[in-house]
Design a protein that fits this description.
Helices cover 2% and strands 46% of the residues. With 478 residues, the protein is mainly beta.
């Protein structure tokens, strides 16, 4: 989904619980928001979109993050960067360790093992093949090890779990080389990425491919859920799609995995959570300068795998651009609730479930219109299926500036995780240093002047506003 737009970009590169719908509290104690751009890159004006985050369970100080950030060495560089933190997200630096020219297209990553191992799936520049990568030391400057590669894929999405000291890696992706147009695929490894097997999860006819988003989620009992869009037909840029969830109860170790959840309508694998929804496919600046069409997230309660949440976006009516829906299953995906939340003009939904059962929903929504429109980034938490929820505004920034350099503008996805009594996540947004834009407060590493709302380079000269990735943490509802 990103290939042509990123190629052009590289060429150019030389608070308290409340009823739903009540006004949100202004501030919540314990929330952090941190701009990831390090001081050494204070002069950069790049569009650092589509961020992602990975946590190390064995060391709460260690984190890895990514975005469409170029190598500061320029377009001739043979590697691309990830962000690393060794102090729990208070500060971030770059490591140019990804084997990709100057930058990557799509990239996601996750941590497995003890000692920890960072696994990544990227679309390499140039050519955009899938690279499945690994490193046992993400703080090292050494290039990550290439484990597998192949062409003709989109949106690799990595999840991991550790089983008897043997990492299992699940990479959801859209594989255009899959037979019969059933492109929704999960690359599965049971040996720490030494070998991967491509598992096709679509069992129905498609319009020639599935949607680009294929999202795995893994519970501690090795139940694996995967959500995807079953694209069935199209009229122009409007795609008629099913929203589908598959499940495997043994970590996809069998000969025919992801066949444990059948739909009662046709008895085929893959529960049809919603059918015949309209996906407005737009690779143009459609919603606050962002394209739309692939918003999808799934999260399982790691300790109670019966409990799973799903979010996606579609068009509800003729006057609607894009609406996020949130639903829940409490019986392993066999039946699903109606919409628990519907959020108009929203995208980039990401779900996570804490160990105490609290669900977190991160999303970005356009409010207002025209020159006064804003991108608002929110984290919602609920203990009761969104009958009530706590709402925290992490950022509210102009939607019309800066002008997009390429698409995606802020990303086809952001990411939310949970650890202990915290939700931790990442999003991209306009980086103007204005306290009113960040109601919870914000910390910059790059040079800024808050009184004049200006970004500054290393010499103190003004720098144009751009898009930066922001890390955040927030306490989980008790």
């Amino acid at each position: 989904m990103h290939a042509k737009m990123i190629a052009a970009a590289v060429a150019l590169f030389v608070a308290c619980e409340r009823p739903v719908d009540q006004a949100p509290p202004a501030k919540l104690a314990g929330v952090r928001v941190v701009d990831l751009i390090p001081a050494s890159l204070s002069g950069e004006t790049w569009q650092d979109a589509e961020p992602f985050l990975a946590l190390y369970a064995s060391n709460t100080k260690l984190m890895a993050a990514s975005a469409f950030t170029p190598n500061p060495g320029g377009s001739a560089s043979a590697t691309a960067p990830i962000y690393v933190s060794d102090d729990g997200g208070d500060s971030w630096t770059l490591r140019n360790t990804l084997p990709s020219q100057a930058m990557t297209a799509d990239i996601t990553h996750a941590v497995g093992g003890n000692p920890p191992v960072l696994y990544a799936g990227i679309m390499k520049v140039p050519g955009f093949p899938l690279n499945e990568l690994k490193t046992s030391d993400f703080l090292s400057v050494a290039t990550m090890t290439l484990q597998s590669s192949r062409p003709d894929i989109d949106q690799p999405f990595v999840r991991t779990t550790d089983v008897a000291n043997a990492d299992r890696v699940y990479i959801g992706l859209n594989d255009f080389d899959a037979p019969e147009g059933r492109t929704a695929t999960v690359d599965v490894s049971h040996n720490g990425g030494a070998t991967y097997t491509s598992r096709r999860i679509e069992t129905r006819n498609t319009m020639g491919q599935n949607g680009p988003s294929v999202r795995p989620a893994v519970a501690q009992d090795h139940t694996v859920y995967v959500a995807y869009f079953g694209w069935r037909s199209n009229t122009g840029s409007d795609v008629t799609s099913d929203v589908v969830v598959v499940r495997d109860d043994s970590g996809a170790t069998g000969a025919t995995p992801f066949r444990h959840l059948l739909d009662p309508s046709d008895h085929l694998p893959g529960r049809l959570v919603a059918t015949h929804v309209t996906i407005p496919w737009s690779n143009a600046a459609t919603l606050g300068q962002e394209r739309i069409g692939s918003t999808l997230s799934i999260a399982v309660d790691a300790l109670h795998s019966d409990n799973v949440y799903l979010a996606w976006a579609d068009r509800v009516g003729t006057g609607d651009i894009y609406t996020v829906h949130v639903r829940r299953s409490t019986d392993r995906g066999a039946t699903w609730s109606g919409d628990l939340r519907t959020l108009t003009n929203a995208t980039d939904a990401s779900l996570a479930v804490s160990t105490n059962g609290t669900v977190g929903l991160l999303y970005q929504q356009v409010t207002g219109s025209g020159g006064t429109s804003r991108w608002v980034t929110r984290l919602e938490q609920s203990r009761d299926g969104f009958a009530t929820h706590q709402d925290v505004v992490l950022a509210t920034v102009p939607a019309t500036t800066p002008t997009f350099q390429f698409l995606p503008y802020i990303g086809d996805y952001n990411y939310l995780l949970t650890r202990g009594n915290q939700f931790l996540g990442i999003f991209s947004a306009n980086n103007t240093p204005d306290s009113t834009n960040f109601p919870q407060g914000v910390v910059y590493q790059r040079r800024v002047d808050f009184p004049t709302h200006r970004l500054l380079d290393g010499a103190g000269a003004p720098v144009a506003v751009s898009i930066d990735p922001f890390f955040f943490s927030a306490p989980v509802l008790p």
